[in-house]
Amino acid sequence: MRFTDLINEKKVVFFDGAMGTSLQTYLSSDTPPEKLNLTLPDKVKQVHYSYIKEGVHVIETNTFGANRVKLEKYNLGRFVKDINYQAVKLAKEIASPSSVLVGASVGPLGDLIQPWGQITAHQAFEVFKEQIEILVEAGVDLIVIETMMHLKEAKIAVMAAKEVSNIPVVCQLTFNEEGKTLTGSDPEIMTATLEKMDVEVVGANCSVGPREMLSVAEQMSLHTKKFLIFQPNAGKPYIKDGKTIFPVKPKEFSEWMIKFIEKGAKIVGGCCGTTPLHIRAMIAKVKDIPSPADRKVHILKGLSSRTKFLHLGEKESFKVGANLMISPGLNEEKLRERLIEIKEKAFSFINVSWQNRKEGEISIGHFINLIQETVDLPVTLEVATHLLEKSLEEIEGKPAVLSNEHDEKSIEIARKWGAMVGIKIPIEEDKTDLKEKVNLLEEKFFKNKDHDLLVLTFPLNHSLKKRYFPLKKIFDQITNIKSTRFKVPVFIKLNMFHASESFNKFLTGFFMGMANWYGLDGAIIDSSFDNTVFSILKASEIFLG
């Protein structure tokens, strides 16, 4: 049976329990669990067998830390292929007489990715790809990306898995007692980020016990249509007489797992400290419970940074983005100054515009990391197609890619990374009938209303002295479109006008006020504007009613 068939059956699916803590007796400070695949293979097989005989549907390979970065810490990097290949061989030998599937355990690198560590996103991708290629070649049934403490690292691992193969992917992050990852992401940001990525199952494992993880499960179940998996530890460990003790016993563990299924979990299992006795108790307790019924899910529509989610389509406030032009001559020092200025203003997100600059000593990835390190705001990207992949692999949350309708390659890349897609429509003086254009775009792009938006763009450096835009006509059309079948968020991108600085502020603020009054969701304006623009926006809102 394939994993996709298994999770579509109307029953709860059981994963195994801990591997590393089960092998603890045979480990020393200079011996990782994965080394035992080569030195004590029978002990690894015993752990697999102990879970299979309790009735699990999936066992995981002893490869959690078998990536090159982690293995190098033990001078085992040269054995990365042998360790991973042997791990799959051992698991398949035990699983083959039964219908039990073999999932490839893929854990974090062990070192943080930039900007929080030294490893680049590209290096991380290559390390994950190397390990996953070996695991797939050896014959695993699915990839289990787990215990990820950093959403960015999880996304990169997912993309590496999908680059290698089309076999199913499970992705689990790990959360602390406050319900946050190591880098501050919460379950809502996780589900929003992974919802449109090519992942079959999402969830959480490790770090905390079932009591603390239950609230994470509840939040996830509300905001994703994907299958859910939860594998908590057997409680928070403590040291007694020199031994590590996990406080949650099998009976208590099994009672907690019922609650996870009630919250919508399709798959349950255990992590650190869980034993075959925990898994036996869990299966006995929940095996007769039917698969969770269809959940009432509210897909979060919007953008996110590492820790902040920006809701779109819900008219609670008008969102203003800072258009940050990464132009020639903008060095790291000047960018930091610009970012600090943005941070002190009322912007909701940053639009990174890198159109006419070539990558030199400083890459676009470095600039994006600098932005995320300095200002914790969601990001939209308006970059050349050949730089888009490099940009998206650095984003820590869920971005949007702004593109014209004909740039199919950029749209394809954006969708692959689970980003929102913003289709840009230029507002031209002699072509102001938007309805026909939008109807065509809806058929082509906007069927996925949860993950797309429309961006109306004004010409650069337009002079209002020569002609005027029929703004009321344009806004009336947008209002008509938005109130009927067209439901995606609509933004307006306002470029600088040929006018004085003070008049530019007034025009920008007033246009935003009109856009807000006519039902648009937000605007993108030059990042150099100060808070006077926001004051004019507020004043125009009052004036326009």
Provide the descriptors you would attach to this structure in a database record.
single chain, 545 residues, alpha/beta, TIM Barrel, 2 domains, eight-stranded parallel sheet, eight-stranded parallel β-barrel, 19 helices, 20 strands, 17% strand, elongated
Write structural notes for this entry:
With 545 residues, the chain is an alpha/beta fold. The chain has two domains: 3-286, TIM Barrel (Alpha-Beta Barrel); 302-544, Dihydropteroate synthase-like (TIM Barrel, Alpha-Beta Barrel), CATH 3.20.20.20. The protein is 39% helix and 17% strand. The longest helix is centred in the N-terminal third of the chain and has 18 residues, at 121-138. The radius of gyration is 26 Å and the shape is elongated. The mean pLDDT is 89.
Secondary-structure blueprint:
Layout: H1 3-7, E1 13-14, H2 36-39, H3 41-52, E2 58-60, H4 68-72, H5 80-95, E3 101-106, H6 121-138, E4 142-148, H7 151-164, E5 169-173, H8 187-194, E6 201-205, H9 210-223, E7 227-231, E8 238-240, E9 243-245, H10 250-262, E10 267-268, H11 276-286, E11 302-304, E12 309-311, E13 319-325, H12 332-343, E14 349-354, H13 364-374, E15 379-383, H14 385-392, E16 400-403, H15 408-416, E17 420-426, H16 434-444, E18 452-457, H17 471-483, E19 490-493, H18 501-517, E20 522-526, H19 532-544
Parallel strand pairs: 1-10, 2-3, 3-4, 4-5, 5-6, 6-7, 7-10, 13-14, 13-20, 14-15, 15-16, 16-17, 17-18, 18-19, 19-20
Antiparallel strand pairs: 8-9, 11-12
Helix pairs in contact: 3-5, 5-6, 6-7, 8-9, 9-10, 10-11, 12-13, 14-15, 18-19
